[in-house]
Design a protein that fits this description.
The complex is a heterodimer of chains A (558) and B (163).
Chain A (H helix, E strand, L loop, with lengths): L1 E3 H11 L4 E4 L6 H7 L5 E4 L3 H15 L3 E5 L3 H5 L1 H9 L4 E7 L15 H4 L6 E4 L6 H13 L5 E7 H5 L1 E3 L18 H16 L3 E5 L2 H4 L3 H11 L3 E3 L14 E4 L6 H9 L2 E5 L5 H4 L10 E6 L13 E4 L2 H11 L6 H16 L8 H12 L5 E4 L3 H9 L8 E3 L9 H11 L5 E6 L9 H7 L5 E6 L4 H10 L15 H7 L3 E6 L6 H7 L4 E6 L26
Parallel strand pairs in A: 2-3, 2-4, 4-5, 5-7, 6-7, 9-10, 9-12, 10-11, 12-13, 13-14, 15-16, 15-17, 17-18, 18-20, 19-20
Antiparallel strand pairs in A: 1-8
Helix pairs in contact in A: 1-2, 1-7, 3-5, 3-18, 9-14, 11-14, 16-17
Chain B lengths: L5 E10 L4 H11 L6 E6 L5 E10 L3 H11 L3 E7 L4 E12 L5 H11 L2 E6 L2 E8 L1 H11 L4 E6 L3 E4 L3
Antiparallel strand pairs in B: 1-3, 1-4, 2-3, 5-7, 5-8, 5-9, 6-7
Classes of the chains: A alpha/beta (558), B alpha+beta (163).
The complex binds thiamine diphosphate (TPP).
Chain lengths: 558, 163
């Protein structure tokens, strides 16, 4: 039986569990699109390759499966770059397939040739150039394994057109026989270190658990919740850690860091012991590092050795699969009530609530809570970047694993709409609601066409404050209100634009949403709700650059 | 704040396939470390190459570079070799004109330094010196007055002397 490289590519992907691809064709990749006709893999034609990458990313984040995107050589491939970098920063398992000029033209500056492997070297976990169809199947399998294993990440496969078109006999396929070094073991050394961590935790009086995105990637939701309940340990999360633990009995102190909750930042500052799980202590989480958790002994569990001690010196660490570690840890820690610590926290919580700065989002916070109240419990929220992201992660209560999807490490504006599209394709049983700003919305507005065409029923909320709101807030506080290049046009009619794409749409005010929320929540198909927000609806408290997590600014006047 | 710089020799085994060297070099570059010398060649197995690199760097170097290199899919093992438990050798090829005036000096030098004449054509001669870094540098200094025309020098090759 003879098959082309493209056929082998799609067959191998399918065998390995890939059901959906987001992409955009070009001459170099036509052999693949041609095979799509016979393949059971679904291909979603996006309107810009960046969106294909974000959709694959959102798909992976919602399902835990590997997301796959496809673009042609040259400009198609370079259009993926922002999406690949976004996936890399948040460790999303993803495969980027790129077309390439024929092997005899490689390196000749042929039409639509770019060295996409070179361009993406620092933003991929690994990459492959397939030079012979006999290597296709083994390369695809290896790429998928690498994307998923250890700390996941995007893997790029560059596919010259002749390799896609050439036919080989099935038995000609070959295994490269190279070493794959991504395996991790849990051995005696790891066990000893975990015992020490358990001892420190048992003896601590004011412990705090710091949860990062690694928990989600390891699918360690129940293991984590078990530990929290057994030792009565309050937890804070990084932006990527949101939605990893969803116990409701007062242990959740919220997001830490520059845009974090006051309670979370104050409590971690008082901790005598911090156990970080799947978190890398990014600058957004710690603010200025010298001021972070000055009283605490810090322990760290992570699958990625480079995340250990990268940004902060930790006192003890374990490198291992997070789920395995947490399971083991559960047996080693002592049940404990910690009434003193928990009551100190609940006093702090009441004080902050009394002062009225619980979420610090103003009327937008109430609006988001109202939306959530009208949606099923198991709704996935997707947040863009800017004030809208901070509003969403502070005001939306995540109740399911993978219930919040947002670009954390890269902070890519325009991520939300295509990512939500991918999330809904991958997880059609859950409602998906997008929160975006009027700036980021336009960075991938063309995807409304894709959403309309495939009738992907996502619900999009565009907070229209007429400004790049977060930039405006920064200019207000740190540039003496010298506003420049942060005002957007009043002439743009967002609901009309949505309707122009064939998407049902309404407009509402954040103060008086009227029937808008209900229409959004009841809509069968895709729906866009434009919500007018006051341009000075900022988020408080915030932490100025170069300050520690407890040196907060509370309001406009300060 | 200037940190104290020390010479670090890293020896790694990697998959012998295209693009690996670029990835390895990228790790050094991204962390802001310069590679002073680099040797790459196949090992006993055609699927595996050994890369030996030398960098002058601060004490954080080893941990940072080792972790990042280990993260590369094609890197099989990474070791830092210290002076006490490893053997290091370098080689240099030196091209010089041989004439009436320097002939005797040159052949004196050859016998003192223990170099080998590996080519002698139309009074152009190429010498080879193998030794430690100090050996190589001593020889180069010694030969400089004899009008050296061309030099090709390897970086350090190294192996652990105890396993
Ligand atoms: C692609 C990209 N460009 C620029 C930025 C810098 N940036 C961060 S937030 C922001 C403003 C976002 O404005 P908008 O989308 O209207 O959201 P708002 O803050 O008003 O909610 C900008 C420009 C970014 N994060 N991403």
């Amino acid at each position: 039986m003879e098959r082309t490289g493209a056929e082998i590519l799609l067959r191998t992907l399918k065998e390995e569990g890939v059901d959906d691809i987001f992409g955009y064709p070009g001459a170099s990749t036509l052999p693949i699109h041609d095979c799509m006709i016979e393949s059971s893999i679904r291909h979603f034609l996006v309107r810009h390759e960046q969106a294909a990458a974000h959709a694959a990313d959102g798909y992976a984040r919602a399902t835990g499966k590997v997301g796959v995107c496809l673009a042609t050589s040259g400009p198609g491939a370079t259009n993926l770059v922002t999406g690949i970098a976004t996936a890399y920063m948040d460790s999303t398992p993803m495969i980027a397939l790129t077309g390439q000029v024929t092997t005899n033209l490689l390196g000749s500056d042929a039409f639509q040739e770019t060295d996409i492997i070179g361009i993406t070297l620092p933003i991929t976990k690994h990459s492959f150039l397939v030079q012979d169809p006999r290597d296709m199947a083994s390369t695809v399998r290896e790429a998928l394994a690498i994307a998923k294993s250890g700390r996941p990440g995007p893997v790029l496969i560059d596919l010259p057109r002749d390799v896609l078109a050439l036919r080989i006999k099935e038995e000609e396929a070959r295994e490269p026989g190279f070493f794959n070094t991504t395996e991790l073991k849990f051995g005696e050394d790891e066990r000893i270190r975990l015992k020490e961590i358990a001892r420190l935790l048992n003896e601590s009086e004011r412990p705090v658990l710091l949860i990062g995105g690694g928990v989600k990637l390891a699918q360690a939701f129940t293991e984590l919740s078990d530990v929290i309940e057994k030792v009565s340990i309050p937890f804070v999360t990084t932006m990527m850690g949101i939605g990893s633990a969803y116990t409701t009995n007062g242990y959740n102190l919220g997001l830490i860091g520059t845009h974090g909750m006051e309670l979370a930042n104050r409590i971690i500052h008082q901790a005598d012991f911090i156990l970080a799980v799947g978190a890398r202590f990014s600058d957004r989480s710690t603010s200025v590092i010298e001021g972070f958790a000055p009283l605490a002994t810090i322990a760290q569990i992570d699958v990625d050795p480079t995340s250990i001690g990268k940004n902060i010196k930790t006192d003890i660490s374990v490198v291992s699969d997070i789920r395995v570690s947490l399971k083991e840890l559960l047996g080693l820690v002592a049940e404990k009530k910690r009434d003193d610590w928990l009551s100190r926290i609940s006093k702090e919580r009441s004080r902050i609530e009394m002062e009225g700065c619980a979420d610090g989002c103003g009327p937008v916070g109430d609006f988001i809570r109202q939306v959530q109240g009208n949606m099923p419990e198991k709704t996935i929220a997707v947040a863009d970047v800017g004030l809208n992201q901070i509003w969403a992660v502070r005001s939306w209560k995540v109740r399911i694993p993978r219930g919040m999807i947002t670009s954390g490490g890269m902070g890519t504006m325009g991520f939300s709409v295509p990512a939500a599209m991918g999330a809904k394709v991958g997880d059609p049983d859950h409602e998906v609601v997008v929160f975006t700003g009027d700036g980021g919305f336009f960075m991938n507005v063309q995807e409304l066409a894709t959403i309309g065409f495939y009738n992907i029923p996502v619900k999009i909320i565009v907070f229209n404050n007429g400004n790049l709101g977060m930039i405006r807030q920064i200019q207000h506080h740190f540039y003496s209100s010298r506003f420049r290049d942060s005002r957007l046009s009043d002439l743009v009619n967002i609901t009309e634009i949505a309707r122009g794409f064939g998407i049902e749409s309404e407009k509402a005010s954040v103060h008086d949403p009227g029937a808008g929320i209900e229409k959004l929540c009841k809509a069968e198909g895709p729906f866009l709700l434009e919500v007018i927000v006051d341009e000075d609806n900022f988020v408080y408290p915030i932490i100025p650059p170069g300050r520690s997590n407890i040196e907060m600014i509370y309001g406009r006047g300060e | 704040m200037e940190k104290e710089l020390k010479e670090h020799v890293i020896s790694m085994l990697v998959n012998n396939r295209p693009g690996v060297l670029a990835r390895v070099a990228g790790v050094f570059g991204r962390l802001g470390y310069n590679i002073e010398s680099l040797c790459v060649a196949e090992t006993g197995s055609p699927k595996i190459s050994r890369i030996t690199s030398v960098s002058k760097a601060d004490p954080d170097f080893t941990e940072k570079v080792k972790k990042q290199l280990n993260r590369l899919v094609d890197v099989i093992s990474v070791n830092e070799l210290d002076d006490d438990r490893s053997v290091k050798r370098e080689m240099v090829l030196i091209g010089l004109d041989v004439n009436e005036r320097n002939r005797s000096e040159l052949f004196q030098a050859v016998s003192i330094l223990g170099c080998t004449v590996v080519s002698l054509k139309d009074s152009y001669c190429i010498l080879q010196i193998v030794g430690t870094k100090v050996d190589v540098e001593t020889a180069l200094n010694f030969l400089k007055p004899l009008v050296v025309k061309d030099i090709a020098r390897t970086g350090a090759l190294a192996l652990e002397s105890e396993i």
